[in-house]
Amino acid sequence: MSNNTKNDIEILESPYKLPEGWKWGRLGDFIDIYRGVSYKKTDVHSEKQQNDCLIMRGGNIEEGNINIDADNVYVDKSIVAESQFIKKNDVIIVTSTGSTKVIGRAGISNDNYSDVAFGAFLTLARPNGKADKSFVNHYFQSSLYRERIRQLASGVNINNIRTDYITESPFPLPPNIEEQQRIVNRIESMFAKLDEAKEKAQNVVDSFETRKAAILHQAFTGNLTAKWRKEQDCNNCNNCNNTVLDDISSYSKNLSKKDFDNISFFQQKVDNIQLSDGTIWSKCSVGAIGIVSNGSTPSRKMDTYWNGDIPWVSSGEVSNNIICNTKECITNDGYDNSSVKMLPKGTVLIAMIGEGKTRGQSSILDIPATINQNIAAINIEHGFIEPKFLWYWFQKEYKKNRTAGSGSGPQALNCQRVRELDFIVPSLSEQQEIVRILDSVLEKESTSKSAAEQVLEQIDLLKKSILARAFRGEL
Fold it and tell me: If we measure between CA atoms, which residue out of 78, 163, 159 comes closest to residue 117?
């Protein structure tokens, strides 16, 4: 290791032994560097106008490529220097960001663009022809480059890459252009096969939600259990008669006046749904089938309220899952000095706030637990509604339920709006059959998705391994 006093950074002259005929070079000898520039706020606009060009930012840079549709900021071409426009084989590097994962990310342009330039916090490396352009480009995807850049660029809040971090990078150079091209051809041949497999795996992952939505639609229109109903001869079967709402009404007479009144109010607004085979399901609101409440958060200022053994669920933990444990627990003091309630196993939860994915997501408690004030709990311990049936219904209705949140501030549900959410009620035995089928089918779908995600991870690791071997002369 030598100390480069001019640039005030350490450069590894020989990070590892190269094959005979190879040598270590300085990356800056094979590229020209251009730094991104900032534009005045008055010159920037989000809608493209005549004679405008796109200014790429960090969001446009992906691993190995650029996405000009990802982040749209435009300026008039007349104020952009010619050197800032993107050309084929240009490498655009993220050189300033708060993310250690993103810093140094490099995307390669596959085309010449007369209306796409790059802006602040990016740097452009343009191969100068002294080495094969594609060989240089692949170097920017290698761990040799990325690991070194991440180490040098680390900062307190913002990670920054100085130009000399790039230009002084050690560059392993094969003996001639022909050898470089041979290596490039080998890399790209292997990558092409991996990309084909990656596309198939990604399609499985991307289509999971579509397939799941189609399965849930079939379940809640009665199609999944049509054969089962025929086998049961449900129209003449006392076991399949739909008395669920009547049973809940009778049960509610033993509840508090407030809970009884709520259930009675919503049970007055019930319609029937007749399926194609004559089976009757009920259409109602969530308030007609259970007790809806929310929780609270014991004071964070009181250490004695926390780190106990009473499970406490935060809204971030409600993510279409079954909750078997919680990130935090409260003490008996925290329980006694707040308005939390202990909810029984089988309670269905729905998150009430969140501009991201959280609002409208649901969970089932597999343990007795308390919850915070941003979660609605639907207590159905009367046993006439299968908890998973309600949980799957909430997943089907996710997008619709999110729109039920409103307000002048951040969009949010509340307990009353949760009571007003739509629900459908088959007989208890049919609920159980629907859950049985959904458990089986969705488990298979989830297994396929997980396997595809593992394939994607393995492909990324294989690509890194191929590049590592390539730049060691081992490919």
Answer: 78
